[in-house]
Structures are given as C-alpha cells and as structure tokens.
Specification:
Blueprint (H helix, E strand, L loop, with lengths): L7 E2 L1 H7 L5 E3 L3 H6 L6 E2 L5 H14 L1 H12 L3 H11 L4 E5 L5 H11 L4 E5 L2 H13 L5 E6 L5 H10 L3 E3 L1 H5 L17 H12 L8 E4 L4 E2 L2 E2 L2 H9 L2 E5 L2 H12 L4 H10 L1 H4 L1 H12 L3 H20 L7 E5 L5 H12 L13
Parallel strand pairs: 1-5, 2-3, 2-4, 4-5, 6-8, 6-11, 7-8, 11-12
Antiparallel strand pairs: 9-10
Helix pairs in contact: 3-4, 7-10, 8-17, 12-16, 13-15, 15-16
Length: 355
C-alpha cells in the first residue's frame, strides 16, 4: 500500500497518470455536474442532501459532530462505494480527488485501501486542477483564427484542415452550439461554462506548441457558454484569416441546413434577435417562414449577423487580419486557399506569442 506521505501528487502528475489510471471524483453529484475532469467517474462520499446536512452540522457544532454526522449518513452505502471502485480500478489502482484534497479524499482513499486498491490523491483537489486549466488557457501560443460571416462553412473547413493533419479546436463543437440565435437547433445540451473550459483544456493541452492551433472566430460567448477571458482576449490578438464570401454564395448551404427544422423552432430563434432585427424585419422574417420562403428569412437575418460581424472585426488588430476572397462554397478549394494564406504568417512579428 501507499504510505500517507507519498500518496499526494500534483495536478500535472495526476493528469499524466490519468491517461492509464481511472479517476474518481468523490465530490457531490451537483459539484460534479457543474464541472469535472473529463473522463472522471463520480463516486460521491456524500450525495447533495447529505453534503448539505454535514455542512450545516459543521457550521453549528464544529468538526467532530460534522464527522460523526457524515459517518452516520454514509454508513448504509459504504459497501456499494467500495464495490464501484473495485469494478473500475485498473490493475488495482485509482486516482482520487475532492474539492481541496481534504477529508473527503482522505476518507475515500482509506475506504478504497480496504479493497487493496492503490490510491493517489490530487494535492489541492479539483481546485488545483481548475487553477491549472485557467493558467494553461491563458497562455499565448501559436493560434490562427478562422473568421468569416455566417454561412461561410468555417466549421466544415476546420474539419477538412483537421483531416489534413492540422491542429484544430472546434469551439462550437465543444460547446454544443453554433454560435447564433439558431445555434442550439439540433444540438445536445450545452455544458456549463466551467466544464467547457475543462474539455477545452483537455484538448488544448495535448497540442504541440511548435505548431499553430486553428480555432473559429467567436464572440465571448457561444450560446450560454462563455470562453475564459484570457483565452478570448488572446484570440483578438492572434493572426486571423477572414474568408470573404457574398450572401448568394453562402445562402444555399444555410438553406440546406436550416430548412430541415420546424417553422416553429425557426420563428422562436428569429424572435430571440427581434430587438436587433427591428420590428419590420422580424415581421418579414416570420412571414417568410410561415410561407415556406426560407431563403428570404435567412437573407433577412444574415443582414443583421453580417453587420454585427463586420463591426466585431474592428476590435481586432488590423496587422493580424488576412482577407481571403472566394466565389465558391467548395470546402476543399477554400481550405487550400486558407492554408496558402496561413503560410505567409510571420510569427516573429505577430503579437500572438510571448517574446
């Protein structure tokens, strides 16, 4: 078994070991749901109600009464917790963490040791992991932002680039949202902002720092998910390739995608931006959907999104903007144009990398 003084490991070592050893998050289900280490299994010491009861006992009566209350709470389920751990332990090993690496981790590590499971505990708990997440995502590194107005097939182009071996992070894919008022259509529920950062870090930390990472241009939020402040700020300073495509070229793909959704869901999405569209445009867009003229409805909403996107470009540093004109929506053609433009980036002059 592992001696008490050697069972604690730092966050970086913990994550390295998690590649081949299961991670058990012993926090309450509500804490786990808010955000967790991707891939971690939740075997909570206390459920949400138990945690609340123990917390109240601690505030009113102190540490020992809280411990006794906790023991009483978990007694009926203690064997099932050990059974769960034994079932997932690979080669008799498990990594454990709670919020701060304190009593909950200690208690569960002891319990697992009864099943002859070698347990390592995350020093500082989930809190230290989150510090590493935000610290890593705040670092400036080689990044290329792919921009372009709504319907420019940026996500499809990034997937094509990924297929060519480029390092790509699909922010909208991680957020389960396409970024606009229509972005939730056909998507899974969004993660919390906290957990989004965790899964972004999980991918981001695996990329080589010697090569650039491609991301799609995004506002500070993607649906209900917010990008970490430092990460988003860095996106404003990094080289951005802006694909310029007129409305008529963008329209067919948007029509193919959004005409599959019900008129009611489309109208609900239009109403979300009614204040920005204006009363007349909103009414015209709703009328177009009701009459089955989806092309007209899309054109009306594109006018707003194009205007908003062009305004957002003004916030970026002009020296980092590279415009690529295209007259086609062919994914391969545009991806190769973008790659060619990226080849001309002078990283020494870019402010995207720390000197």
């Amino acid at each position: 078994m592992v001696s008490p003084e050697s069972k604690y490991i730092d966050a970086e070592t913990f994550l390295e070991m998690s590649a081949h050893i299961p991670v058990v998050d012993v926090r309450s289900p509500a804490e786990y749901k808010t955000g967790h280490i991707p891939g971690a299994v939740n075997i909570p010491l206390f459920d949400d109600n138990q945690r609340e009861a123990v917390g109240k006992k601690y505030k009113k009566e102190g540490r020992l009464p809280a411990i006794l209350e906790g023991l009483n709470q978990i007694a009926p389920d203690i064997s099932s917790k050990l059974e769960q751990a034994v079932a997932i332990a690979k080669e008799g090993r498990i990594l454990v963490h709670c919020w701060r690496g304190g009593m909950r981790s200690e208690a569960m590590a002891w319990l697992f040791s009864l099943g002859s499971i070698e347990t390592r505990v995350l020093s500082g708990g989930y809190k230290s992991y989150r510090h590493l997440v935000l610290e890593t995502l705040s670092e400036k590194r080689k990044t290329i932002v792919l921009g372009g107005m709504t319907g420019s097939s940026k996500t499809h182009i990034l997937r094509y680039l990924n297929g060519l071996g480029q390092q790509v992070t699909d922010l909208e894919g991680l957020a389960n949202h396409k970024g606009s008022a229509f972005g939730s259509l056909g998507q899974l529920p969004q993660p919390t902002t906290e957990h989004f950062a965790n899964i972004l870090f999980n991918q981001w930390s695996k990329f080589s720092k010697d090569h650039p990472v491609w991301v799609e241009d995004e506002s500070r939020n993607i649906g209900s998910v917010f990008l970490p402040d430092s990460f988003h700020n860095n996106m404003q300073d990094t080289p951005a390739i802006i694909l310029m495509m007129d409305v008529k070229t963008r329209l067919p793909r948007l029509l193919e995608e959004y005409s599959t959704y019900s008129p009611e869901s489309l109208k609900t999405s239009i109403l979300k931006i009614s204040k920005r569209l204006g009363g007349s445009n909103t009414a015209d867009a709703i009328k177009a959907v009701d009459s089955g003229d989806f092309s007209r409805a899309i054109e009306i909403t594109l006018y707003y999104y194009d205007k908003a996107y062009l305004f957002g470009l003004k916030k970026k540093q002009n020296k980092n903007l590279i415009y690529v004109e295209t007259e086609t929506d062919n994914i391969e053609t545009n991806a190769l144009k973008i790659l060619d433009a990226a080849a001309g980036i002078n990283w020494q002059e870019s402010s995207a990398i720390d000197s």
